[in-house]
Design a protein that fits this description.
heterodimer, A: alpha/beta, 2 domains, B: 292 residues, 3% strand, Leu-bd (chain A)
Chain lengths: 379, 292
């Protein structure tokens, strides 16, 4: 028995070295995604998009690094959409898996928890979907693939004032989340600056389900628009409770809305609502159309913005590795920072010294259960 | 004035759901002196059983409600039989830790079975908006939720105070050592307690899912809130659990309405501390220490 075990061990070890001799080691990248928890649908989309990018690179024989072609592997970990979970995932990816770069996380509160760890370990991080300005602020190794909330908040505020002719607005947002809080404050400042009036500025905490006390207050001031810069899993409930209390205001949101679950949960309630987003499926460029088609073929679902941005983040890293010509985190970081006019599927990306690209936004309208392109805004 | 009444209605609905959960905490504690920390998750299981019955089987409300209550009661009894009975005479700490473990187990099993997403129960109750005088609005399902919850609490009160089994229950709560000597089957009484507590939690879960939304982790926060409501009212007392629940809901809603939504939980739990300083065993609780 003992001999047999030894024999297997030898065969196993031989196999390992043999494999090691045959092909250059694969390039390992980390992904920190909310695979479980309250925005698990975003995590699933992140995973799908990362695996799509990985498969595309590998079916082309891998990435060209220096003189050899090397396969790509994404190590995808679940951060449960919790800051403490993200910190653990980042530490595991960096110290245990020795990844070259990390994509993630998606919610700003999580990216904010991961960023100091990536920064200290000098591992480049690209968050696809975190729009809160603090994520990249003062950091050399942290980048993002999306626009930031000061821009998004301005777009929504101006849309409300000029297009919807709103004079008064009420805001209800999650004060425990960096993203929601940041964009709510930008909206308040911009809407007031444009000439509108904020009549209610109400808060709740993540996982709250009863908003009727706040909404009863909002009903009392009868605003023209109700701005809900929250995530797709909560917004339908907030709108339902608002309508049940008889609030007639037009509803506005931000990119945290973009997930098919929004319509599944909200159904008819979502009709006629507007939100800002990174891209519009029905107003897609040829490159974006190709991505949507291959994503749909592989996963039988329409990709959300988080998926498209994840795909862009993966492509940015791939390009940086190829340009660096070596599997070295510092060199990859320098190549990412030097990216100019990278044509991603969600727009053109240029990093001007900070990790934030300058990109346009779109406003979408919900009509017959579909997202319809309304207008595009460029900075 | 209209706004105050509107807020009172909001609080009443929330309080009714808290009460349905708090009753389970209170009853189990009253009988075996166990704070069943898995109870919030039993509430979640009840909500998901209701969700599955509604979406997969497409049953109407009056079938879903009793069926989900029955199935959840079985889950509660099974948990007691498998996880708690052997530990009944063990150290109190072992029981509490087991209860916490059972809760985490339930969360994860549901997450694996149905996925982690937020769900909504299909509308089971009519939800037309009714306009009351003075600009007050209420939906039909809100009225039904409040009325059915109150009816369930009434039935429980009658059961405990007017039936033979109820008498046995109160006797066991009073003295677990002597009562079995009188020919009362202790295991049976405890099983009935878990069944009733779990069935009420299931009713709460379905109402909660009807009014709000459900996910595998919903039981954690709600469980804590209901537990705290039971403690405010005096854990072990049925009237106390109901009173504590409505008080907590009203404090929460009115602190959002007139102070700050940011401080809601801080105010609610601050109040708990103050109340416990005045009444260490809750408003309607009996003092735990007996004079010798």
């Amino acid at each position: 028995m003992k001999k047999l075990g030894l024999l297997f061990l030898i065969i196993f070890l031989l196999g390992l070295t043999f494999e090691g001799l045959c092909a250059p080691p694969e390039l390992k990248f980390g992904v920190s995604a909310p695979l479980t928890g309250d925005i698990a649908a975003i995590g699933q989309a992140t995973k799908n998009a990362a695996l799509l990018a990985q498969d595309e690179a590998n079916s082309a024989g891998g990435l060209k690094v220096g003189s050899s072609k090397r396969k790509v592997r994404f190590i995808i970990e679940d951060d449960e959409n919790k800051p403490e979970g993200t910190a653990t995932v980042f530490q595991k990816l960096i110290n245990q898996d020795r990844v070259l770069a990390i994509i993630g996380s998606q919610a700003s509160k999580c990216s904010n928890a991961g960023a100091p760890i990536a920064e200290a370990a000098k591992i480049p991080q690209i968050t696809p979907w975190s729009t809160n300005p603090n994520v990249t602020k003062g950091r050399k190794f942290v980048f993002r693939a999306c626009f930031i909330d000061p821009f998004q908040g301005k777009v929504v505020a101006q849309f409300a004032y000029t297009k919807l002719k709103a004079k008064t607005a009420a805001v209800l947002y999650d004060i425990a989340s960096d993203y929601n809080k940041g964009i709510a404050e930008v909206f308040r400042n911009e809407f007031t600056k444009t000439g509108g009036k904020i009549v209610n500025f109400e808060t709740y905490n993540t996982k709250d389900t009863d908003f009727s006390a706040q909404l009863t207050k909002i009903r009392g001031s009868d605003p023209d628009v109700l701005f809900l810069p929250n995530y797709f899993n909560e917004v339908p409930l907030q709108i339902k409770q608002a309508r049940q209390l008889g609030i007639q205001a037009k509803v506005l949101g931000s990119d945290g809305w973009d997930d098919p679950q929004l319509i599944q949960l909200g159904g008819k309630l979502m009709e006629g609502a507007y939100f800002s987003n990174h891209y519009a499926v029905d107003n897609a460029s040829p490159a974006l159309k190709t991505f949507i088609a291959s994503y749909q073929k592989k996963y039988n679902a329409i990709p959300d913005a988080a998926a498209a941005l994840t795909y862009d983040a993966a492509k940015i890293i791939f390009q940086a590795v190829t340009k660096a010509g070596k599997a070295n985190s510092l060199a990859i970081r320098d190549q990412i920072a030097a990216i100019k006019n990278f044509s991603g599927i969600t727009g053109v990306i240029t990093y001007n010294g900070d990790g934030d690209p300058v990109k346009g936004a779109v406003m979408l309208r919900i009509e017959n259960g579909k997202y319809v392109f309304d207008s595009a805004v460029n900075p | 004035m209209a706004i105050i009444i509107q807020q009172l209605l909001n609080a009443t609905q929330l309080g009714a759901v808290y009460a349905l959960i708090a009753l389970g905490y209170s009853m189990v504690y009253g009988i075996i002196r166990l704070i069943n920390f898995a109870h919030g998750d039993i509430f979640m299981v009840g909500a998901f059983i209701g969700f599955l019955l509604a979406t997969l089987a497409g049953l109407p409300f009056y079938v879903i409600m009793p069926l989900a209550m029955l199935l959840t009661a079985l889950v509660g009894v099974a948990i007691e039989r498998i996880a708690y009975r052997k530990l009944r005479n063990a150290q109190r700490m072992s029981l509490v830790i087991t209860a916490l473990g059972v809760g985490i187990f339930l969360e994860n099993i549901v997450r694996v079975l149905v996925g982690p997403q937020t769900r909504q129960l299909p509308p089971l109750l009519p939800d037309a908006i009714l306009q009351l005088p003075g600009g007050i609005v209420i939906t039909e399902d809100k009225i039904l939720i409040i009325l059915i919850s109150l009816a369930l609490m009434m039935i429980l009160w009658l059961f405990v105070n007017k039936t033979l089994m109820g008498t046995a229950l109160r006797a066991v709560a009073d003295n677990k050592e002597i009562v079995p000597l009188m020919g009362i089957n202790l295991n049976q009484v405890i099983a009935v307690t878990f069944a009733i507590g779990s069935a009420l939690a299931a009713a709460g879960g379905i109402f909660f899912g009807q009014a709000y939304s459900i996910d595998p982790y919903m039981g954690i926060d709600l469980g804590w809130k209901a537990f705290i409501a039971a403690v405010i009212g005096g854990i072990g007392s049925i009237e106390g659990a109901v009173l504590g629940s409505f008080m907590l809901a009203e404090v929460e809603v009115f602190s959002v309405a007139y102070l700050s939504s940011n401080l809601k939980n801080g105010i609610a739990f601050g109040l708990l501390i103050v109340l416990l300083l005045i009444w260490p065993s809750g408003i309607m609780g009996k003092p735990m220490l007996k004079k010798v």
